Structure formats: C-alpha cells, structure tokens
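pasting for the record
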Amino acid sequence: MQEDNHHKHYAFWIKLASTASVVTASLLVIVKTWGWLQTHSVSVLASLIDSSADLIVSLLSFLAIRYALKPADDDHPFGHGKAEALAALAQALMITGSAVYLLLSALQQMYQPRPLETLELGIWAMGFSLFMTLLLLSIQRVVIAKTGSLAIQADSLHYATDLLSNGAVLLTIVLLMYGWTSIDPWVALFVAAYVLFSAWKIAMASFDQLMDKQLSVEIEADMLAAAQAVEGVVRAHHLRSRQSGATFVVQLYIDLEPNTPLHESHRLGDAVRDAIRVLYPNTDVLVHEEPAAIQTSLS
C-alpha cells in the first residue's frame, strides 16, 4: 500500500511538471516566432530554434513519462522505464539537427546580413520568454523537492541554461538598438554551440541508461550500508545496479549465520529490501541470502 501511494504521488507530480513543460515550450515557440518575424534577428531565431527543440523534447518526455509509468506486465517484467531513455536519444538527434540549421543561419547572417527591424518588439518577446521560463523552473523545483525525479531534474537543468540563453539574446537585442549589429550572429553561434553540447549530454545519459550503466558509487554505498545495518546480516556484498527510467534495479548478496532457518532468511531478505527502499523508494530490489561460512567466488 505504501509503495502504491508513493507511485501515485510520484506519477502526479512528474505528470504535472511534464505538462507544464509542454505548455511553456508551446507558448515560447509562438511568442518567439512572432518576435523573429518582427525583428529578423538571427539571435531571436536562435532562441526560437532552441525553444522549438525544447517543445519536441517536452512532447516526447510527456509521452515517454506516461508510458514509462505503466506497471510491469507479462511482456515487460521489469517495467517500461527505458522508454524515457529511448525518447531522450531521439530528442538528442532532433536537437542536433536544429543546432546545425542554426549554425548555417548564423553564418549566412555574417556574410549576407539582413536588415533588423522593430527590435522593441523583440525585447517584449524575450522578456515574456524569461518570465515563463522562470515560472516553469519554479514549478519544477517544487516537483523535484517532492519526488527527486531524475527526469525532471534533467529537464530543469536544461531550462535553467535556457534562462541564461534567453537573457543573452535579450541583451543582444538591446545592444543591437545601440548599433552593435555585428554581435547578432555571434550570439547565435554561441547558442548553437550550447544546443550541441546539450544534445551530447542528453545522448550520453540516454546511452548510459540503455547500456545498464551502474548507479553512482555514493548510491551503491548507501544501499550496502543500509543492508549491512539490518540486525542479523553478517555482511552485504556484490551489489549490482542499473536504472530503468525513474526506477533503480538492484540485486545484492547478504551473508547470514549458517544455522539461520529458511523462514528467517527470507524475513531478513525482506528487511534488507525495505531498508534500501527507505532511502530510495522507487527501487526494485532482489536479495540473495547465503550462509556466511560458504566462501563463494561471485563476480
């Protein structure tokens, strides 16, 4: 019952955050499209492309999170969590394409400059974008505090860097109004480089999860310490771990006294599982009980 309540609590908050992300990204694309059509600034175009990529990312995350939250079934006994990683990998490819287009646009503006117009409207567009990004980050901070969701943490980090990017574009428009026309394509190049870097990070994180990279040393140490602290456990060792979406999948061995009854062995295994879930509630734990006197060569 407690695990079910935790899952419902987790699902509610990350669905709220993913919905807010889609709504915000959609508004930013509309406003920045208007701002770019009014100003013809390649910096505003850079920000528009970045927000368009954000919208695709947010939509894929919106769908992937809901699929990943589906419970395990006969065909997927370990759940559907890796849908998040697959969606993120697709996002990285889309973002890379956007960045390449942006690089070409910036180079074209350098060598064939297009006159800039109505920059005041661009300021209004970017100011609104900053406000909406701040609002979304506030919602995400609440969700992270309540769930600790890695997916939302990554999304929040992405929008935090977008906040800096939007601020840079706003500053660029102000400088353009004072005659600094040459700065426009350079800022676009800077944003394109940032987008490529973001795509690389997303791709690597997705690849790690799809290839079952183990959890951090700190998390594994916490889990072993929790298992070792259970009264009756002689030693906890050979912990293996991976991540599937928001779920940690863990297996470990515990050594027990040689004459421990079978029913007591299972009770201690359940106690170890519960102790780990106290620290990391969304964890699938498999515990192997072994007599302490038997020396094994586990790998």
